[in-house]
Every structure is written in C-alpha cells, then in structure tokens.
Inverse folding.
C-alpha cells in the first residue's frame, strides 16, 4: 500500500463521521491503472460509505482523495465524475423514461462540444457530433449485446440486462476507474457467470481499472487480483484472494468471535446499506 | 421556417376572420407558448414551478413600457399605423427584450431556489410569483393596482402563431438533442445524472431560464393583444391554469401540451355563456380531461404518424429511431 505517483486513485487517511458514529476511520488505499480490486466486508463495514465519499455524495470528515493526482474531496459529484470515474449503483438507477440507447447517450453530455443553442439550430457540426455519438453508443451497445433492445424502454429490460446497461452507460463516459457497487446483487447463478465474463472483458478490452464492491465471494475471489477488506469502518486486510482467505482477522470479521464487540451489527442485514 | 410561413399566411387571411375568432386564436397561441415553455421546466426537467404567470407579467410590463414609453422617446417622429412593415417590426425589440428580462428574473429566482426540491421549490416559486404581483401593484410608474392601459394593439396572428411555432420548434429540438437528454436525466434520477457527469443544478437553472424567456415573450404578446394589463391578471390562478395545461398534455410531450393549451383556451370561450356556472362546468370538464388525457393520446398518435414518414421523422421526432442497430 505504498502511495505512488502513478496511482489512479489514492485515498489517504479518510474518515467519515455522522455525529458520534464513525462510518469510516482512517481508511487509506490505492488503485493503480488497469487494476481490478475487490472491496469486501460484512454488512455495515462501510463499503457503501467509502463509495459515497469517493463519488462525492458525502464529503469525508477528514483525509484526502486524489484521482490521478488531483484532489477530489469537496468537489460536487458531477465534477468528480469528469475526473475520470464512473459508477454503477447497488439499486439500479437507470433513466426510466429514456430508451436503452438514450441511457447510454447521457454519458456523452459532459463531453459535448455543442451547447443548447447549437442543438436548436441543428447545424452541420451539431449533426456530425450527434451522428458520432449515435455511432459510438451503438457500438458499445453492440459490444455488450444490447443493440437489439436499443429502442426499448430501459425499464422493460430483464434485471440482468438492466445491470449490464448500467455498466455500459458508465463505460460510455470513458472512465479510467469504474466503481461497481454490488453488481451481482439479485442475480441468478447464470447471470453471475455472465457478469464475471463481462467484468473480465471490460478490463482486457477497455483497460479500465475497476473497484468492485461485492458480497458474493465466488464472484470476488474468482476475478479480483487484490482484495481490500473493511470491517467497522477500518481496512483490516489487503492482499491476494488466497492471502485474504487465510487471514484470521478476515475470518473473525465474517464469522464473528465470541468476545468481539459489535457482533449484533451483523444481525441486521439492512444496516449500512442505506445511502 | 415552414411554421413561420403558415403564421404569415394566417395573418394575410385573418382579414377574413371576424375579430372574435382572431382574438381566440391569438389567445390559444399565447397559451401554447406558456404551456410549452412551462413544460420544459415541469415536464422535461421535473421541477415544480408555480410562478410562470409572474415571468409572463415581467414580459408583459417590460414590453408595454418599451412600446409605450421607450420607443416614443427614442423615435419621436415614429407613428404606429398597424399595417406597415416598419410598425410591425418595431414590436420585435420589445418582444425580445421582454423575453430577456423575464429570463433574467428566471435566473434570479432559479439560481438560489433550484437547489431545493419538490415541495420546497414549489413554495419558493409561489412566493416569488406573489412578490412580483405585489411589487407591480405598488409601483405607480406602471399604474399600480390600476394597471396599464392604452397598450398598442400590435399582436396579430403572425406574431402569436409565429411565436407559438418558434417556441414549439425550439423546445422539441432542445429535448431531442443529446444535450437536451440531460433534462430528462435530471428528471428521472438526479443522483445517477450527477454520477454521469451531468451538472444537475445547471440543467435545472437552464430549463428555468429558457422557460421564463418564452413566458416573457408570451406576456409581451398578451399585453399587446388585450391592450390592458393589471397585476391581478398574473396571479397564482393564472400560473395554475398553465400547470393544468401541462399536466393535461401529458408532462414532457410538447405536442400534447400544445394541444391541451388550445383545448383549454377553447373551453374557456365555449363556457362563457354559462356565466355563473362556468367555473363549475369548467372544473368538471377538467376532471374528465384528466381521466381521459386527450392531449397525451394525441401526442402518441402524432409520434406514430411522424415515425411512419421517414423524411419527417428525421426532422421532428422519432425519439426512438436514433440508434442504428
């Protein structure tokens, strides 16, 4: 965990407190370009809180976050996104009134050359840019096998496809870091297998670094090369899947120890899941 | 362009209409502008606004001051004759400035208040509408509560229908472009929109300002159609009437909203004979409309119709025919 100059994401000693409750305490981690890192931890460990300070939904109480060397803490979410970070959501957040293709096109808005006035004039430059966006969005959809449903309302897609579409939408923003918040949640085994293939393909084809929050151990252990384990708002372990599996602290965090404080937290499955 | 041509043709033939018909058509066109511009804020961007009539008032008073006070001072020799091209064109600066001043008002209200959501935003806009009304009531330079009279009757079918066509085209082109999809993204899910790099506050303010601009133009057209304006004409009920048009037209469907605006204008006229019972019947018909939603249906039919014409589909709609598969 040495913060190098070339780190894509560098979280330094971040804490997040809500009044007396510490959601995150002194969390530090780095992600290098192209890396696939899994973030795991029992319910209420602070995984979603960490996601929320990374994406600007919350401001860290202390500490700093650097994305490619630029400070992101304190910026509004849309500015952070423009630094090269895209995300998906634990509970799918597609734009329900837009069709599948349009959902992907919204990712291009932040990088548009034309303003609203040119959109009304519909000149040649405008039409050329629109055509380019259509083509690019169409290509992404085709790549992920969604081109046949491009004109369908996004809400009408099957659950697994909605998750996939959310990932495509995030990728359309050309991020260098992709945050996936429990992408396998609610998926059946065959959808999970597809998801693993999909994540692997994103890495090889797009070279995007991925931070994956996931409960499903099979998914995480199978594809991540490095794991970070959070428990009670602290990083308790970090290393390869094999190391993590053998780490006594991790086993204690998941299975519990008789003398450990805060065991009752695990009895409430919804704790820490709210945003 | 084609729309403007229709407006010009309508104007040439308007000599054949009786004044009442012309007046109703002008009102219908003005209501179309108001409803379609509010639709950008409410329907497309999902922000509740209760002060559209206030922006209309700003535009109405601004343009009345320009044609009534500023223009005679700048061009003392100028005589308004009605039919001549010069007289007609003298309306244009007033119209545009009215829109710009209303847009500025929109920026002033929208800037701080659009960080609020839902009920809170509705309260702030309601308050702003009242502020404008009371300010006008207490400003003697614009006649106070007595209002302004003797405004030049410049508004004709060309200006009104032309304005409606331009508004409708602008709004449709706007929300159809990739940039315009930002409005829908903000409406559907603000958190996701921000996560995709969309500046949600900026989109909300833009919608508000553009909406106010066209409301200001509608106000200017209205002032020069009725020749008399008073603060009471732009109260909360007026705003509410525009909201009804937007909801009837199916929120976020410009064509449907325009149809609803025309229907409600006509309804208002037809019910005039019922005098005392007018509002009762009006309310009943509105309830019936809400259940049947004719505007929304028309918009759907319109879309299907347009999509069937390949050359038109590319120009005016076909929201779903964008992605090559």
């Amino acid at each position: 965990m040495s913060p190098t100059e070339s780190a894509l994401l560098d979280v330094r000693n971040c804490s997040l407190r809500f009044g007396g409750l510490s959601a995150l305490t002194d969390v530090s981690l780095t992600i290098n370009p192209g890396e696939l890192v899994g973030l795991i931890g029992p319910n209420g460990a602070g995984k979603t809180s960490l996601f929320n300070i990374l994406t600007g939904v919350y401001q860290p109480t202390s500490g700093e976050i650097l994305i490619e060397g630029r400070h992101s803490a304190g910026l509004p979410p849309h500015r952070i996104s423009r630094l090269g970070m895209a995300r998906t959501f634990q509970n799918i957040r597609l734009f329900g009134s837009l069709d599948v293709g349009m959902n992907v096109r919204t990712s291009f808005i932040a990088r548009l050359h034309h303003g609203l006035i040119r959109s009304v004039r519909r000149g040649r430059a405008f039409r050329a840019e629109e055509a380019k966006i259509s083509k690019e969005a169409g290509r992404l959809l085709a790549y992920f096998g969604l081109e046949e449903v491009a004109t369908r309302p996004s809400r009408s897609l099957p659950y697994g496809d909605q998750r996939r579409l959310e990932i495509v939408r995030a990728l359309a923003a050309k991020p260098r870091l992709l945050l996936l918040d429990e992408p396998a949640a609610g998926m059946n085994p065959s959808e999970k297998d597809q998801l693993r293939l999909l994540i692997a393909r994103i890495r090889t084809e797009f070279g995007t670094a991925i931070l994956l929050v996931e409960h499903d151990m099979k998914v995480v252990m199978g594809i991540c090369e490095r794991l970070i384990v959070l428990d009670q708002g602290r990083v308790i372990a970090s290393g390869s899947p094999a190391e993590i599996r053998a780490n006594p602290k991790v086993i204690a965090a998941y299975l519990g120890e008789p003398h450990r404080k805060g065991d009752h937290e695990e009895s409430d499955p919804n704790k820490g899941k709210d945003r | 362009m084609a729309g403007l041509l229709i407006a010009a043709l309508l104007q040439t033939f308007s000599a054949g209409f009786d004044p009442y018909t012309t007046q109703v058509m002008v009102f219908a066109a003005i209501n179309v502008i108001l409803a379609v511009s509010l639709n950008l804020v409410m329907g497309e961007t999902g922000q509740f606004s209760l002060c559209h009539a206030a922006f209309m008032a700003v535009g109405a008073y601004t343009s009345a001051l320009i044609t009534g006070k500023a223009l005679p001072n700048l061009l003392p020799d100028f005589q308004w004759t009605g039919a001549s091209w010069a007289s007609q064109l003298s309306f244009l600066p007033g119209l545009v400035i009215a829109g710009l001043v209303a847009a500025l008002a929109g920026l002033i209200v929208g800037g701080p208040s659009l960080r609020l959501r839902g009920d809170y935003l509705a309260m702030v806009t309601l308050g702003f509408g009242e502020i404008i009304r009371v300010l006008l009531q207490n400003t003697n330079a614009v006649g106070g509560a007595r209002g302004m009279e003797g405004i030049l009757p410049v508004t004709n079918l060309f200006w009104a229908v032309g304005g409606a066509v331009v508004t409708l085209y602008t709004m449709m082109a706007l929300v159809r472009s990739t940039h315009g999809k930002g409005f829908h993204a903000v409406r559907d899910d603000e958190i996701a929109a921000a996560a995709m790099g969309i500046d949600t506050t900026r989109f909300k303010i833009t919608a508000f300002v553009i909406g106010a601009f066209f409301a200001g133009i509608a106000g200017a057209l209205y002032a020069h159609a009725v020749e008399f304006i008073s603060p009471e004409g732009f109260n909360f009920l007026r705003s509410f009437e525009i909201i009804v048009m937007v909801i009837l037209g199916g929120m976020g469907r410009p064509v449907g909203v325009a149809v609803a605006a025309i229907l409600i204008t006509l309804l208002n006229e037809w019910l005039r004979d019922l005098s005392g019972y007018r509002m009762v019947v009006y309310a009943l018909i509105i309830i019936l409309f809400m259940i049947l939603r004719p505007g929304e249906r028309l918009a759907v039919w319109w879309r299907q119709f347009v999509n069937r014409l390949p050359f038109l589909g590319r120009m005016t709609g076909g929201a779903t025919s964008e992605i090559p598969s």
Notes: Chain B touches chain A through 35 residues (CB under 8 Å).
